Structure formats: structure tokens, C-alpha cells
Amino acid sequence: MDKNCFVSWSGGKDSCLALYKAMESGYTPQKLLTMFSLESGISSAHRLDENIFRAQSDAIGVESIIGRAEFNDYEKVFVSHVKLFKEQGIDYGVFGDIDLDEHRQWEEKVCTKAAITAVLPLWKINRKDIVKEFISLGFKAKIVVVNTELLDMKFLGQDLSLSLIEEIENAGADACGENGEYHTVVYDGPIFKKPIELNFESEAIAVGEKWVHIKINYNL
């Protein structure tokens, strides 16, 4: 039986590991769906430019789809894409959420509207174990967004490693960043045909009162 799926793709470690585990379980990814804010013109959570996702798509070999929505229309736009995927023979949606019930409930709701089944390969796995597995598998990711109310901005721009996870925990933050402490971008790993040559600039850019992110350049 075909197990074609789309992946709710943030460009970060959790969606990437969810994709990896889905593939290990026999799912075939057809689309990487990323939602962009019409207000800012970048991805909603990880603040990445479109060319980064296209580079990831090219390296992984799965088509990137960008959904663009204002805040109040997010769900409507997301569902419209999922319904289109269903028409194209995709019956499953893969998500990287771990243990937040309200997130799972939303994902199951939007998939149900399109007669698609939500799949959460990381669900209820220990948060720290998820990051450790991600690293041990050989994935490479860099912290690109930090919530300075929860984590010092010295972590911005650093590559995820086992030692860095310990530092993050010692700072009183969640190792997986599941409370919104940090976001990442993945640039290499076992599902990548080639690493992405990203240029991470050292300049930190403030967003509002608490978020900072690092500028990334990639020329296709």
C-alpha cells in the first residue's frame, strides 16, 4: 500500500527527525509544507528565508511547498494545501510535535478536514532523547533563533552537540527547546544527498522584546 505523505516542515531538527523516522517506517515523502507569514515574508517560527527551504528541498530530494498566510488565515491556508495534497494521492501528514496535546489536536483537526491521517513519529518520546538521537544519527543543525527570556543569546549561532545540550539544560532550559527557548535550521544529515553551504553571519537581529535571530545567506 502506498504511504505517500507530506511533512509539516519548519526546517529545524524536530520536523527533520520526524521525516527521517517516517521514512524508516515506510512512508514516502512527497511534499515539504512550510508556512510563511505574509506580514514578515519569512517562515512563521524559525524566521528563515524561502531560499533556505529550497536548498533543503534540493538536498533532500522532496518538493518544497510554501503556504503564505496572514495570522488570522493560517489554518484556512494550511487546510487548502492539505486538501490539494489529498487530490494528488497523499494520504498522510507527518508532524514533528512531541508532547503538547493542543498541537496534536490541531494537526489531527486540519488533516481530518482533508481526509488525511496525521502521523507524529516523535510523540511521547523523551525530549532530551530526541535531541540526542538527532545528533547521534549525524544530523547537523545550528541554533538560529533564541528567546532571550528563556535562554542566553550566547547560544545563538552554535551547532547542536551533546555538550551544548548539557549547557542548555544547565542554564535551566529544555534540552529540546520545546518551551520555545530556541529554534534551529538543519543543514546536513543522513537524509541529505549533500550538505547545504549556508553562510551564518555573526550579527544578531532583535525581533520584538525577546526574540533574536542570526542572519543566514544562501545563494541558489
Topology:
Layout: E1 4-8, H1 13-24, E2 28-37, H2 50-60, E3 63-69, H3 74-87, E4 92-94, H4 101-112, E5 117-119, H5 127-136, E6 140-147, H6 162-170, E7 182-188, E8 199-207, E9 211-217
Parallel strand pairs: 1-2, 1-4, 2-3, 4-5
Antiparallel strand pairs: 6-7, 6-9, 8-9
The shape is globular
Helix content: 25-40%
Q: What's the end-to-end separation, in Å?
A: 36 Å
Oligomer: single chain
Please outline what is shown here.
The chain is an alpha/beta fold. The chain has six helices and nine strands; from the N terminus they run βαβαβαβαβαβαβββ.
Provide an overview of this structure.
With 220 residues, the protein is α/β, with parallel strands linked by helices. Helix content is 31%, strand content 27%. The protein contains 6 helices and 9 strands, in the order βαβαβαβαβαβαβββ. Strand 8 (199-207) and strand 9 form a beta hairpin. The protein is globular.
List keywords for this structure.
single chain; five-stranded parallel β-sheet; 6 helices; 9 strands
